Amino acid sequence: MAFLDVSNLTKSYGANTVVKGVSFAFDKGEFISLLGPSGCGKTTILRMIAGFETPSSGTIMVDGQDITGLKPNQRKLGMVFQAYALFPNLNVGDNIGFGLKISGVPAEERRARVADMLKLIGLPGFEKRYPYEMSGGQQQRVALARAIAPRPRMLLLDEPLSALDAKIRVSLREEIRAIQRELGITTVFVTHDQEEALSISDRIVVMNAGNIEQLGAPHDIYNMPRTRFVATFVGQLNNLDATVVDPAAQTVSLDGQVITVPNLPASSTAGAAIVLTVRPEVLSIGQRQGNELALHGTVEDVTFLGSVIRIRVALGRNVVSLDTFNDQRAAPPQRGAPIEITLAGKDLLVLAN
Amino acid sequence: MKQNRFWAWVVFLAGAAYFIVPLVATFEFSLRMRRGYYSFDSYASVFSDPNFQTTFGYSVVIGILAIIVGIVVVVPAVYFVRLRMPWLRPVMEFITLLPLIIPAIILVYGYIRLYNSSSIIPFTGSALGTDILLVFAYVTLALPYTYRAVDTGMRTIDVQTLTEAAQIAGANTVQIITAIILPNILVAVLSGAFLTFAIVIGEFTIASLLNRPAFGPYLQNIGANRAYEPAALAIISFIITWGAMGMINVLGHFAPRTSARTD
Ligand SMILES: Nc1ncnc2c1ncn2[C@@H]1O[C@H](COP(=O)(O)OP(=O)(O)OP(=O)(O)O)[C@@H](O)[C@H]1O
Ligand SMILES: [Mg+2]
């Protein structure tokens, strides 16, 4: 039996339906991300799980208990907000101990638990500090400790890192993941940052306009996107216009260059226009083991991204981006130079729209 | 520039004189009870008057009760309007301004009509009932100030997120208001409290028409029948009122820092 079971969850504001019959089920201890563009309903789903919004229909079960009708303070969940939301009048120790105090945990036990939590988040001895005396990253750690101190059944996080700067964002997300693993707490993490979702989740729910587009492990989502939306939203993607040459032989013409596409559906008809997609990182410059397809073009642009160099290659009307590692001993390709790129045919995807 | 500053000073001094001269004159007069030289005899006479002690004590108690009732009514009202019914705010603004528009005498005649001893709720039928009525009247009189003080205080905190953070941790509404909301707007609440106190301590109309032994009617009575004591009382009232105002200022320095750092 699933630990978190959301079924047919719908939320409408007047005539505007923002969550459209969403269902998913997750096991105990999983780290789940809700990923999608702004306004797709991620926060609304999380707030319905927390109890701050009432679903228009559908049910939410946690650990076999139907919590759909419970008030937020009866759900035994922990939540971290985007805006930290530490209680300004309480010091760090009292903030972390707030939930324990509410549930009547004796002061002595509370103090020990708070000290443990501060050790866990790497801020030992910070009990007497006030929120305004701490940086954003520290405040958000305290908010995390406050959420998990009462040993909630589940942890909910709504874009907890988006107010922080890039460096802290990366280190803190790793810390959140490490703490989550250590405690084994089922976690729902809302983000619109695909890299964030890919890097820390066990499974990702990709959302668009109130619907689930795809649900799966990060590498499945990234390598086997099921819809065009997922393919373009998660990671970089090249879209190539091509024409089917011979459906039986699975050949297509790409700006006059004929290649074999193993993923071409048998139902395609000769002469039909199709769109092929391919990730920048599966393309190589020159021959490479396992790449049976070759395409010829000219270098249009070279962008230096540090350890990676992104090269744009014109194949005619189509332009593809490809990534190669920065090689300190070799000069990058020159603009306007002819170039051969190779790839494995199985990496060319034909996407459903 | 220099010219500007000169006229600024002239206006400032004229304004200051308007307030200070009568005050100094009153103070000077209050010291002249004993012929020929200055003394604090009038103050001694005031403080030793048992009526001063009882009426002042009575008004202090009524004032404190009005403050407590005011907080219990206003804080949750402002909280719920901000949290759940923001569209009600203009209505609240209007209602809380009414005590400034409707004279106290109209209020008290309304009370006497509604709550007289032959009505269904005969508040004025007993001394205790009338005291309760007086407390509520003062809560009403102070409403324009307490409402605004509390509303301003709540504007400085993120009421919704703090409420949700406390809720998910298991807190109920009473716990949220007492443990989180109230402490964070304490300075605002206390400034409302001192304003209430300043209003109650010298109020005459309502206390007099409800026939309660309050400090306001006592002041009036002394003013009509004595020479030097009224001046001393005016100075005393002035010090009490300004003491209350000064407390609001002092408290401002103890405000919890609510600004969230986002670095
Ligand atoms: N209280 C509300 N009343 C009316 N519409 C609302 C309300 N709350 C949210 N919405 C609408 O619901 C939609 C989904 O909002 P939601 O906050 O869930 O988006 P999100 O996926 O979290 O986006 P973001 O990444 O910007 O936070 C939005 O179009 C929003 O305008
Ligand atoms: Mg959101």
Distance between the termini of chain A: 34 Å
Radius of gyration from the alpha-carbon trace of chain B, in angstroms: 22 Å
CATH fold name of the largest domain in chain A: Rossmann fold
Sheet with most strands of chain A: 6 strands, mixed
List the domain count of chain A as a whole number.
2
Based on secondary structure, the structural category of chain B is: mainly alpha
Which residue ranges of chain A are poorly predicted, with pLDDT under 50 across at least 5 consecutive positions?
A: none
* Structure summary, number of beta strands of chain A: 20
Mean pLDDT of chain B: 88
Shape of chain B: globular
- State Rg of chain A: 25 Å
Listed once per kind, the bound small molecules are: adenosine-5'-triphosphate, magnesium ion
Could you write a compact summary of the structure shown?
The complex is a heterodimer of chains A (353) and B (263). Chain A has helices at 42-50, 92-102, 107-120, 136-148, 166-183, 194-200, 218-223, 228-233; strands at residues 4-13, 16-26, 31-35, 57-62, 65-66, 77-80, 154-158, 186-191, 203-208, 211-216, 238-246, 251-254, 257-260, 273-278, 284-285, 293-304, 308-314, 319-325, 338-343, 349-350. Chain A is an alpha+beta fold and 353 residues long.
Describe the structure.
The complex is a heterodimer of chains A (353) and B (263). A six-stranded mixed sheet of chain A has the order 6-7-8-3-9-10, with helices on both faces. A five-stranded antiparallel sheet of chain A has the order 13-12-11-14-20, with no helix packed on it. Chain A has a five-stranded antiparallel sheet with strand order 15-19-16-17-18, with no helix packed on it. In chain A, a hairpin with a 4-residue loop joins β17 (308-314) and β18. Chain A has eight helices and 20 strands. The model of chain A has no long low-confidence stretch (mean pLDDT 90). In chain A, α3 (107-120) packs across α4 (136-148). In chain A, 24% of the residues lie in helices and 34% in strands. Chain A starts with a strand and ends with a strand. Chain B has 263 residues and is mainly alpha-helical. Chain B has a single domain, classed as MetI-like (MetI-like fold). Chain B contains twelve helices and no strands. In chain B, α11 packs antiparallel against α12 (229-252). Mean pLDDT of chain B is 88; it is low at 259-263. The chains are: A alpha+beta (353), B mainly alpha (263). At the A-B interface, β6, α2 and α4 of A face α7 and α8 of B. Bound molecules: adenosine-5'-triphosphate (ATP) and magnesium ion (MG). Adenosine-5'-triphosphate is lined by residues 13, 18, 36, 38-44, 192 of chain A.
